[in-house]
User: Fold these one by one.
Assistant:
Number 1:
Amino acid sequence: MPAPLLSLRKMTKTYGQTVANSAIDLDVAAGSIHAILGENGAGKSTLMKLIYGVERPDEGEMHWNGEPVHLTSPAEARRLGIGMVFQHFSLFETLTVVENISLIVPGSKVDLAARIRALGQDFGLVVDPFAHVHALSVGERQRVEIIRCLLTEPRLLILDEPTSVLPPQAVGLLFETLRRLRDGGVSILFISHKLDEIRALCDRATILRGGRVTGDVDPRDHDSHDLARMMIGRDMPAPLHLAPMPKGEMRLELTALDHQPDDPFGVTLAGVSLRLHAGEILGIAGISGNGQAEMSRLISGETLLPASRRDEIRMMDKPVGHLGPAARRALGLAFVPEERLGRGAVPDMTLADNSLLTAHPLGLLKRGLIDRQAEARFTAACIADFDVRTSGPEAEAGSLSGGNLQKFIMGREISLNPRLLFVAQPTWGVDIGAATAIRHRLVKMRNAGVAVLVISEELEELFEICDRIQVLHKGSLSPSLDPRSTRPEEIGRWMIGSASVVA
Amino acid sequence: MSGIEFILAGMLAAATPFLLAALGELVVERAGVLNLGLEGMMALGAAIGFIVVYEGGGHVAAFLAAGLVGVGLALVFAGLALGLRANQVAVGLAVGILGQGLSSLVGNSYESLTITGLPKLAFPGLSDLPVVGGMFSQDIIVWLSLIATAAIWAMFRYSRLGLILRAIGENPAAARAIGYRVTALRLGAVVFGGAMAGFAGAYAATVYTPLWADGMIAGRGWIALALVVFGIWLTGRIFFGALLFGALSLASLVAQTEGWAVPSQLLSSLPYIVTIVVLGIITSNKRLLKVNGVASLGEPFGP
């Protein structure tokens, strides 16, 4: 057997008390698609940073083509032939595609533009070289990142959760591209937590859990069940079932809502209409950057409409378009924003003080002053009810992991006993156990007669918990679709605009 | 000489101190660093430049020395703001105050002395034109500043270095991830900015008004900083901003000598008022700001 292209032995990296990677062994063969499978927080990203030279290991060895190497910067990794496509793209928005690429690849712009077009033809990665990056969709940005990597002619291409930003159709296209690259002799490290994708694409899978390797298998020999057990250490939780509910009263109604955002790079909403009743969950599907941010600010009250248009947004059957967040919350709205730090919680404040921000009407104030005991009781109850892993109510919000903070914010908002609960990206960056708990909780709220609006990029999640789904694309909302009678591909067509077939 | 001729002939020279300092600061800010110490760097450059000329060193040595002290202060700034990642606003202010204090100290025994400036170099033919002729008779530094303006414009528009500076200003983390040495590049930009501020000070004290008076920079550094923002980080706009400011300061002089029935204090504050108004109007274009603004401006960055 020839020496592997990349070989890691006993790679270890700690951040303070946290062991992110513990004695990781990994062999990537030449010409293979190798999966790194693990939950959020399993240490996948840290491992990739070590391989790409962004971070240096505390211990361990890395061999490239059998030779020991010690990387100290991404530039060195690139010289060896390692390219990386980041999950949160490393593109420069104010530059054009070709300018972005010329930052890495030498050559004149005209020459590069021709190469970008040629590569686009060969691999189905079509993109306009002279477009500004800020004007591109997320899928197009990913193509630019991949093209930028490919033009450096890498031997190993690292892709960090590449499918999380793609509609189902585009995932197939990406896999086709990756297979062609592999057949051309490029090895691929494919990082994901999606089992089906890995079984469909990869020749080899290394599974991480809690910073350690828990499996090194051929994914085609194992079913999703086995892989899941290696990944989360137990069986996958059973999917939820929605019991039918009688149609309740109208809790949220958007009527032909148009909105031109202040931000010149924002998405203009055009004719957005939806109706949400008590006792149902409405899911808003779509790829981020299609108007989700604008829509959520309009619903939360962070963006106000002029009083003359207040009827375009109605909550609990009252016009609220001109009312701010506090007034809408007083009507019974609770809101969990997508950004947990800075919008959902204040990072430098304790959990107890963060409770106060929205839960103050629940008796946390006494004669206008803070009742510290009530505040601590409320916070402790939230922490216990929602299984938040933290040292206690006095912990700073910024010290919690993303998933735990999300559980805390969900807990705080649910404790408000809202009539309308609006959650953006409920399980983003949350491990499977916690994600399941959050979904169960949302369904429980629905069954108790709360109207629940969920914005999510995870189609599987929406299919699991929603009574109805609407798809947001370029600021327009699709008609309401029934997840029980709609195939994911159909949602995918709405996600990319029903007229075109290729993303 | 009519008022208009006076303004046309003098505005380029009047604009040059602002222009030199603002071009340097443009490069610094495009790279993502906010250096508020411009005023102090100019003041020290002015003092050193004046002393060198007064002591017989000549103008070339004066500009070199002024550029060097500008770089020296820039290195103090860079050591704290880039090396130790201290707050750039606080460090910039502190370095600015340091520069002003040092300029008072070294210039103390030269107070109110005068020197000879630089001769004017005229474009043959053009400089004899009526009304506008004066514009084509300027000292060498003015001509060099115009060349520097064109060079910096071309650098940001066409060169790889310009592209890299814009990239590290927009997203330093991404620039590092694709292999650029962000801190080293920023250091280079800050050093360049320091040298330009030194030149600007030397021009003010050895050419434009060839005398030394403590505090003679008189807020020019702050105006240069404002011009960078008012120009939305675009070289051409900064150039016209500097020109406008130069023309307005001369116009207020003309108005005073022609005995307008307007209080002279109001006239001398006119350039500042106009700058504030124009700044307010121009920076209200959100689209231009978003495309040309520097996303990481003033934020410490380090691995």
Number 2:
Amino acid sequence: MLKIGPYEFKSRLLLGTGKYPNFDVQKEAVAVSETEILTFSVRRMNIFEASQPNFLEKIDVEKYNLLPNTAGAKTAEEAVRTAKLAKASGLCDMIKVEVIGDQKTLLPDPVETLKASEELLKEGFIVLPYTSDDVLLAKRLEEMGCHAIMPGASPIGSGQGIVNPLNLSFIIEQSNVPVIVDAGIGTPSDATIAMELGADGVLLNTAVSGAEDPVKMAKAMNMAIEAGRLGYEAGRIPKKRYATASSPMEGMSIS
Amino acid sequence: MELIINGDRVEVPATITTVSSLLQHFGIDQKVVIVELNQEILEKASHHEATLSDRDKIEIVNFVGGG
């Protein structure tokens, strides 16, 4: 079970809802992913085209825990406002704090992320900050009271996979709250590696929505995350330099 | 009455007096929308008692796809 604040989840996959080819594909991808947490962004509504469907209307919101993000915020103040807007929907109390400090790399601004997280914790949110893989920053966020830490694997949407497994493993090792590897996942094996490192979950979006067949990839990610988790729990064998025979040496009929 | 909605000037009939009636006017009262009136975020339950005046600044936001 993945426990975040007061919530418990069977699935360790958190799925983004951006950039799918269409709602039908998205709905099926969400279903086969078996995710229980869907991320969303908060944006101005086009009130003159109110008949335009919204993905929220296509799903049973009771079945999912909504995780709105503060994407678009460049400062703590903007992130806090976005979070409060999201919460006023009455649909959710979790928030993915995302304060982007650089438009080219979309890497998070650590100082503003800390400030926004602190403020939102005071306001009673369940706070999941998207952060860089800085080990001490992760520690500070946990000490502050964040309910999960979400270090990036590599830049958002880059599909580069896990570029610094060492830092991620340090973060996982020290954390007493769930660590969810967020951003940069490209392939199922990337997700598996994150889980084998001991991550409690993986948050991804583009890897599925941008795949040639998003439904198939959603299924693959579901299986990859489960496989990685099982492998982590099972405990891998130590690496050795030379071979060790799996077959017995005794009783061979050739001499 | 003129309102500033999502940064644009919008002329609405004078019969619209509350946030609830404004949402009805645009046909979005049944949708998941969040309203900010003059920089104050409104809880859904208070939409019907939030009264509107000329030149009020309103933000109407919703959830869209994102990661």
